[in-house]
Write a structure and sequence with these properties.
Length: about 200
């Protein structure tokens, strides 16, 4: 089993990464939250790896933080949640907000993640709640009930109207909102830089 990779990031895209380790290129899938934090193509990178083996293939999933990997492993243990959906969940909501939504049993918020319907959201809230105390992640339950500012809502609307996926736009805006309050024009401009 591969648990960690350190090498040169030779391909960097939201769909897949290739890490060259001593001349061998490893194809790695990662959530958008990890993708946005990666160095530029051609730079050195180290990722925690979860190796998923199925009848069809062996796939590697990479994470910059132990917390995200732990969340991923717990998500795929939920009934009817495979690695692809687990990545979509982690790409659609940052870990703190996700844990907050699970703790608060916020099915409506979980249902907003692309690919997660009401039944899956209910299953996540039910099955993951039992796993959270065993995880070393401290969540802020208030994160699930935080309200976006008007500028953030307007920026999200503008980015989705420009053709960006809502989940991608939300993650970019979340990163920018952590840097402090910004006006609408700055949010859109800096989000476009992150998304390009």
């Amino acid at each position: 089993m591969i648990a960690r990779l350190s090498g040169i990031l030779t391909l960097r895209s939201p769909e897949r990464l290739v890490i060259d380790v001593n001349g061998v290129g490893y194809l790695v899938h990662s959530p958008l939250s990890t993708f946005y934090e990666l160095p530029a193509q051609g730079q050195s990178v180290t990722l925690n790896i979860y190796t998923h083996v199925s009848d069809q293939a062996m796939k590697l999933f990479g994470f910059l933080s132990d917390e995200e990997q732990t969340l991923f492993e717990n998500l795929i243990s939920v009934n009817k949640v495979g690695p692809k959906l687990a990545l979509a969940i982690l790409s659609g909501m940052d870990p703190e907000k996700l844990i907050g939504a699970i703790q608060a049993n916020d099915v409506a918020l979980l249902s907003r993640i692309p690919g997660v319907g009401k039944k899956t959201a209910e299953r996540l809230a039910l099955e993951m709640r039992d796993k959270l105390p065993k995880m070393d992640i401290v969540a802020n339950a208030e994160a699930s009930v935080s309200h976006e500012s008007e500028a953030l809502r307007d920026a999200l609307s503008a980015l989705t109207n420009l053709g960006y996926r809502k989940a991608d736009a939300e993650i970019a805006l979340k990163r920018l909102s952590e840097q402090g309050d910004k006006d609408l024009e700055t949010l859109i401009k800096e989000s476009l830089n992150l998304l390009s």
